[in-house]
Amino acid sequence: TSEWQIGGRTLTSRFFLGTAAYPSPQVLKDAIQASGAQVVTMGLRRQLAHGTEASDFFALIQATGSHLLPNTAGCHTAREAITLAHMARELFDTSWIKLEVVGDAHTLQPDPFELLTAATQLVKDGFEVFPYCMDDLVSCQRLLDAGCSVLMPWGAPIGSGQGLVNPGALRTLRARLPGVPLIVDAGIGSPADAVQAMELGLDAVLLNSAVAHAVDPVRMARAFKLGIASGRLAFEAGVMPRQDMAVASTPVAGHPILL
Amino acid sequence: TSEWQIGGRTLTSRFFLGTAAYPSPQVLKDAIQASGAQVVTMGLRRQLAHGTEASDFFALIQATGSHLLPNTAGCHTAREAITLAHMARELFDTSWIKLEVVGDAHTLQPDPFELLTAATQLVKDGFEVFPYCMDDLVSCQRLLDAGCSVLMPWGAPIGSGQGLVNPGALRTLRARLPGVPLIVDAGIGSPADAVQAMELGLDAVLLNSAVAHAVDPVRMARAFKLGIASGRLAFEAGVMPRQDMAVASTPVAGHPILL
Amino acid sequence: TSEWQIGGRTLTSRFFLGTAAYPSPQVLKDAIQASGAQVVTMGLRRQLAHGTEASDFFALIQATGSHLLPNTAGCHTAREAITLAHMARELFDTSWIKLEVVGDAHTLQPDPFELLTAATQLVKDGFEVFPYCMDDLVSCQRLLDAGCSVLMPWGAPIGSGQGLVNPGALRTLRARLPGVPLIVDAGIGSPADAVQAMELGLDAVLLNSAVAHAVDPVRMARAFKLGIASGRLAFEAGVMPRQDMAVASTPVAGHPILL
Amino acid sequence: TSEWQIGGRTLTSRFFLGTAAYPSPQVLKDAIQASGAQVVTMGLRRQLAHGTEASDFFALIQATGSHLLPNTAGCHTAREAITLAHMARELFDTSWIKLEVVGDAHTLQPDPFELLTAATQLVKDGFEVFPYCMDDLVSCQRLLDAGCSVLMPWGAPIGSGQGLVNPGALRTLRARLPGVPLIVDAGIGSPADAVQAMELGLDAVLLNSAVAHAVDPVRMARAFKLGIASGRLAFEAGVMPRQDMAVASTPVAGHPILL
Fold first, then answer.
1. Which of D225, D232, D239, D244 to mutate: most C Cβ within 10 Å?
2. CB contact under 8 A, A160 and B242
3. Phi, psi dihedral angles at A173 (to 5 degrees)
4. Is the ipTM of this complex over 0.90?
5. Element (H, E) at C199
6. Does the model's pTM come out above 0.80?
7. How is residue C160 annotated by DSSP?
8. What would the mean pLDDT of B24-40 be, rounded to a whole number?
9. Is the pLDDT of residue C251 over 90?
10. What stretches of D76-157 adopt beta strand conformation (E)?
11. Number of other CB atoms surrounding residue B53 within 10 Å
């Protein structure tokens, strides 16, 4: 529970929580509180579709004391996302924006090209851009070059609960971008996945479905709270090296290999 | 932090900690306290080799308020282990014994045959036997038939930090032995491994090297404390089902398969 | 396609094929021929249940020119398996027996205890015992001590197609039992699994369901033939060492770990 | 060994081989022949650096009867790659170009942005572009939109031998781009990796280090030849579905989950 900084704020929690798809507003509220999250994200597009209910929803979130991180979920082009980001800034009086520009309706993966276009413009417009991005180093480097100061690489397709499908990619990001806050966003299925991400040295975890779709969302929020704190502590404490008990390391013809 | 029963005792912690290989007695003491462990294990054979220091060591553990679970680490035959278990009962006034009968000096895996022989005798002699055993259902069933009421299947070779090398085997044990306390013992490398074990529905985790060999053992003990609590909560809260985003499930000639 | 010896015979193929559950006798016959298998296994108990059809079945196998390896599938005790092995020797005039003593009706895993009892007796009775066994080193060592000269560790539960659930265990067997013929038996789902086993330095692969339950069993038999030859060649050719592109190897507090 | 079409040619082999880093020209020549590869790739930039030796090298490749696929390895910008591609067309009288635009000198991953720019131009210039690309669907779709008719997604970092670090991404490509030839390029370490790629339904495999860095490259080339044929046959034959032996599938609070 040590302090860290992101986007000009000082936080103690490293758990960012999404607010979609909960069984009821009360469960959402209880889950936020159980999670200890200090930042919650909300899809503006989805809320706007609900008209007057949106303000009720926002009020509910405000009542928990969390910072709001509006997101552009549902946008498929840079233009749409930029427009929505500006609306979010006016409505919620925050320059933070979680920038989602989805490139495929099925996997909901980011579109690296539209995302970069949108991020470039929004940085110029004075936003603190949190880009939901792919996990490849070059795409991430381009977003940094465009002025982003934080990255949100995916762990797996949104809502899949598959965990970290390519942990090596996240390790590479951590190793090559040592000073950049990295928040894994999307794909986390259970606390074990979140702990793995934190042990890799990522700075925080954002998730939604894994709590909202749990049988008991409030208890699961508490589980993630503990897990994320555990993974951070483990990273700081220095994990023991893994030992191979079986076989010599140099490959020689006719000798077994490591797999 | 709900209560559970094992071997006639009621515990709140699900973290069992080993006491070997710490940098100093003080670090050990601090690690036990940071871990919240209510049960710690100690190798009698190793302690006896240290003569008068052994009682100091025991006093240190007693001072933490933890229950002592003596173990027979280093024994290679049922006879050795039985003798050592009786000595432990006299010395420490406890009928609990973590029964280790190692079958291979390199991997330190249990010997299923000698283990069963020793367990059978020790149950008859009135011990509460905690057998360090393989993860296969038939070996485990035999130990239950011999009167054991708890099982300690390995996760991976002792000291390897490889985590759960065969999670399917542990799932099978959980599914087929629903009422039996299962404590994963050996192989855990980091909290992510412990969380995975707890999410599988195992009842507790015993580990030693992952804390003792961490760069900062005391902080790592705290990391495991949180992780084990997280995994238990997640199990109770009901993890969301994982979704495949890619491909139809029925295999058809000429169509991709799931891997 | 180099020669190797097992049980007193010289073979060129390293593919052992099971004969159960094919769509028709003709498909079985074609699959055996496509596989290039020189040894096929047949469950005596199942055949006996079919009365006169059994001899037709045996004739079909003989017509392919393959050696017959009778098996004791379906036996749950040493006694049953010993009796069946003796019947097999009389009926088929072979001292080879694939010894299966199943310890659990659900996973069909071997029973390490009954298996050892049966193997000990059958070796004394002059059989060439091919034990279907667990993948743990100690159980395997006991079977060798009992006089077995070949081992058939499982890859995964029979019929599951899960592949090698614990490749580290197989690597340990290969490393620690360098002169012993090791045939992975059960669990193989696709040629990728068989190639992995062969690259680990195992000597051969036995499978059944992966061919019999393929959409096109004959074509799948050919796929496995090529795959098994490929894996053996790769083992002999010396696989390149895998490189980590991401991160330093020594764990330090606050630095990412390898997973 | 059935026929397939790519880039206007009809091939029987699905194995594309790289020509760098062999112990000697003779070993390279023997490896190409053992591989059965009908297409080999050559880095023009590297060859140009060798002056007159380049034509000897090209002559060696021509003598094997393989088609040449020149590549732009070592280029870091679209401009460099476009220039080199035009040089390759003049020198080797082929419109085929394996387009590599590397975005990071350490992982050698493709730069999705420069790659798209270069591909767009080269398609306009009449090339048959084989882009070495990331494995994400959106980047791949953009290359198709730019007029590419084949894709070469990576399996893992070049030269790492890590195999398929994200098989789910490749499955998604196969499922969503059913008519597009997909050739996995980079990262393959052993035949098991290549078989896995082919079982996923990819159309072919390109590799270099796994053969060149094997202890016996020629034998390894033969191993890959068999493995790639095996994987294709398995894909066509329809792999059996994998079975879970352990646990019910629907997650319920307090019940174990699938991992």
1. D239
2. yes
3. -60, -45
4. yes
5. helix C191-199
6. yes
7. -
8. 96
9. no
10. 96-99, 128-133, 152-153
11. 11
